[in-house]
Prior knowledge:
The chain is an alpha+beta fold. The chain has ten helices and 19 strands. Keywords: Membrane, Transmembrane, Transmembrane helix.
Amino acid sequence: MADRTTAGRLTDALVSVLAGVAATAGSFALAGWSRDAFVVAPIDARIVSATPGPVVAFAIEEFGTAGHVLHITLALAVVVGGLGLATAAALAVSRRAGGPPLALALSGLFIFAGLYLPTGALQPAILGTVSAMVVVGVYAAALDPRLRADTDEYMPDDAARRQTLGLALGTVAYAGVGAALGSRQESVDPTEPLDAAQRRVAEDRIADADALSFESGNLGGMVTPNADFYETDIATFDPDVEPSAWELQVTGSVEETVSMDYYDLTGMAPEHRFVTLRCVGEDLNGHKLDNALWTGVPIAEFLDRAGPSPDCGCVKVYAADDYYQVFPLEVMETAFLAYGMNGQRLPASHGKPARLLVPGHWGEINVKWVTEIELIDEQQQGYWEERGWHGTGPVNTVAKLYDEGISVHDDGRVELVGHAYAGLRGIDRVEVSTDGGDSWTDAELSEPLPDEDVWRMYRYEFQGDGEHELVVRATDGTGALQPEEQASPYPNGASGWVSKTIDV
Length: 504
Ligand SMILES: Nc1nc2c(c(=O)[nH]1)N[C@H]1C(S)=C(S)[C@@H](COP(=O)(O)O)O[C@H]1N2
Ligand SMILES: [Mo]
């Protein structure tokens, strides 16, 4: 057999990549951004869990949420590349013997295996395989009759180039259609209200809380709407846990393993609590601080039923996305198992069907999609602690000052509105400086919410004149002033005073 020409090899390589793109787009068209059925998802999850802690910390600090784009792009490249290699192998084998029919059969087989094995999702794998085989089929039949083993002269003429270009454009167009179809699958967290009676109680409490808000432009008030509530996830794809299939177990050092399902949970007398969450990974003046009214039940009584007897007094809580956290059993005394958020059923992105809310800790301890609570005898590290973070424990005190909270009126009056949070310690005071910290004045504070782990809002007005360096700082309920010294989020959470310069 003659050696292949460079152009022939390049065309094979291009067609292999195109087949990989078509296969991935086919999988996406049917599955959408589904954690289980879209072929990129399991690869992405593996990349995320294999990334070393310092790299994750670096990406979070440098890129914030945009860091997700990096690993998703890498996962896409790995999937398209892998499926492309499978196609290239099929082409290479069929060139030696078999020709186009074998090329089609083998590429179909390899691509199907590449799509099906990581996901187990039959229909998206079949659609992806068919998409890829169309590419290979068109190539084998129309573009490259020399796929037959005995001839191998690539046609270097314009016609061949045009055909190849046509195939490439066709694949890109197909991938575009697949992407459009797939993103329609993405459910924008359909809202599902709580039962009427509960919803009414929740809505009344939300209205009461809203009435305490200080308003300012687009700045949120006392209660963050579900769609605006920040999200921090280890997985790119939310686990899809059907309430009817959900079960929460208490295991480990217990007298007896106990479990509850969704009907047990929602059958108990519900409570409604405001709880504010803050992510340890957020920037000092970042936006990963929000407050909602959660509906659920205290978890202590359920744990007691299991008769816990762990030596170290720790729990390890597991979730459907393979997340886990370890913290002292004693905080479960006041922890809450929530299935409602602001009068709606818990959205998928916030832990549907149920999540933990653990007062006095950073956001990471509030495990979403919770499945198991294991009582353990030896201290262990949680998911983020293994990666170097210290998110178990009380939050740092912070007073925020967002651009949306600054209004400059025509007459030079400047109004500042913001949120301050110190976990269970509560907020007793917020002070504002308009001269870079030389002098301080107390801001007005919103009436406190009746619950204990919540933020407060502040408002301050002054007559502006020229340039002002604004600085805000809070004092918590123990009388401790928010530390001035700046620290970046890793590993203990950001600290320091937020400042901002304005020109009036
Ligand atoms: N199962 C699970 N629970 C989780 C996480 C996660 O990735 N998986 N992220 C944690 C982190 S780091 C934070 S800050 C909060 C954020 O909750 P939210 O996404 O509802 O705002 O959830 C915590 N619970
Ligand atoms: Mo977090």
